[in-house]
Automatic annotation (TrEMBL):
It holds the Pfam family PNP_UDP_1. The purine nucleoside phosphorylases catalyze the phosphorolytic breakdown of the N-glycosidic bond in the beta-(deoxy)ribonucleoside molecules, with the formation of the corresponding free purine bases and pentose-1-phosphate. Belongs to the PNP/MTAP phosphorylase family. Residues 65-321 form the Nucleoside phosphorylase domain. One of its GO terms (biological process) is nucleoside metabolic process. This is Purine nucleoside phosphorylase. It catalyses: 2'-deoxyguanosine + phosphate = 2-deoxy-alpha-D-ribose 1-phosphate + guanine; guanosine + phosphate = alpha-D-ribose 1-phosphate + guanine; inosine + phosphate = alpha-D-ribose 1-phosphate + hypoxanthine; 2'-deoxyinosine + phosphate = 2-deoxy-alpha-D-ribose 1-phosphate + hypoxanthine. Its EC number is 2.4.2.1. It comes from the Eukaryota. GO terms for cellular component: cytoplasm.
């Protein structure tokens, strides 16, 4: 079988039934030979996750309580961290690398508003070629580092016509389109040390944290820019067609992106409390038009994220302060 960072990510590839690892060595089997499937979950068994978590907790001298995943262009959330200990993804054993612009590719551990935190400045997306279990593997690392709360953020297209560019949508639910297609980060044998075989996902998004965030939005004077809504993740990397956006809207989706859902599933499976929000970086057209400026593009996504980073940082830091003050 392929080695740890196998064919399922950049650097390796499938050829027929065989696979090549990063060094190009053929390590699978060709047609006619015995083929042993490797379920995604076995790419990162408990012991490997534990090793990565030990590397981070020993290297930082901390057991962080809050984990943050920075969305596209929202890396500044991690820049708020005090006394940061920085781990480049390349230097973390068994860690994938970031390949997307706006995702620096480093883990930052330190304190924020008095709380111990670890932040991913760069997440892994399905469209980068990583299977879902690999995309959300860092959430399990967070869990074994001691994280109780996951803060997942993303850049997303607004489908709800009431949303404006620059608004923040607090996620209270999601529609798992990749799950509709039979893909899940929890596929393969279940390790009960992480969580149950069949986790429930109702109430995945912590209501207390949503309510606190709404109050914080009011205190910041941005209540009209804060919404509560439903996010959906498609595989990307292409943005959606009009017909897809219309269908998503009919399903009750308010914002669409290419991440977060599999991270939330993984976090809920191992019983973490989840707070997540989308920064609306573009409005999604749901009617046919020839106007070029209605087409989504990553430059616009990054520019809007940069413009709104101050508000996003304040929301996150105030919420973390409340969590820490309520139970230091
Ligand atoms: O990592 P997130 O979900 O914030 O990134 C979004 C989705 C794509 O990666 C990219 C598209 O512009 O931004």
């Amino acid at each position: 079988m392929c080695s740890r960072d196998c064919c399922s990510g950049p650097g390796g590839s499938h050829r027929g039934n065989a696979c090549t690892d990063k060094k190009g060595a053929k390590s699978g089997s060709l047609a006619g030979e015995k083929i042993i499937p490797t379920p995604q979950s076995l790419l990162y068994p408990y012991e490997v996750i534990e090793e990565i978590a030990d590397f981070i907790t020993k290297g930082s001298g901390m057991r962080p309580r809050i984990g943050i995943i920075c969305g596209s262009g929202l890396g500044s959330l991690a820049d708020m961290i005090q006394d940061p200990k920085i781990f480049e993804y390349e230097k973390i054993p068994n860690f994938p690398v970031s390949t997307v612009e706006g995702h620096a590719g480093r883990l930052v551990v330190g304190t924020l508003e008095g709380a111990t935190v670890m932040a991913m400045q760069g997440r892994f997306h399905f469209y980068e070629g990583y299977p879902l279990a690999k995309c959300s593997m860092p959430v399990r690392v967070m869990k074994l580092c001691g994280v109780e709360y996951l803060f997942a953020t993303n850049a997303a297209g607004g489908i709800n016509p009431r949303f404006a560019v620059g608004d923040i949508m607090l996620m209270h639910d999601h529609v798992n389109m990749l799950g509709f297609a039979g893909n899940s980060p929890l596929q393969g044998p279940n390790d009960p040390r992480f969580g149950p075989r069949f986790p429930a996902l109702v109430n995945s998004y912590n209501k207390d944290l949503i309510n606190k965030a709404i109050e914080i939005g009011k205190a910041m004077g941005i209540e009209s820019n804060i919404h509560v809504g439903v996010y959906s993740c498609l595989g990307g990397p292409n943005y959606e067609t009009i017909a897809e956006l219309k269908a998503l809207r009919m399903m009750g989706v308010d914002a669409v992106g290419m991440s977060t859902v599999h991270e939330v599933i993984t976090a809920r499976h191992c019983d973490m409390k989840v707070f997540a929000f989308s920064l609306i970086t573009n409005k999604c057209a749901t009617e046919y038009s020839d106007k070029k400026d209605e087409e989504a593009n990553h430059e616009e996504v990054m520019a809007v994220a940069k413009n709104r980073q101050k508000a996003c940082c304040e929301l996150v830091s105030r919420l973390i302060r409340e969590i820490h003050m309520a139970s230091p």
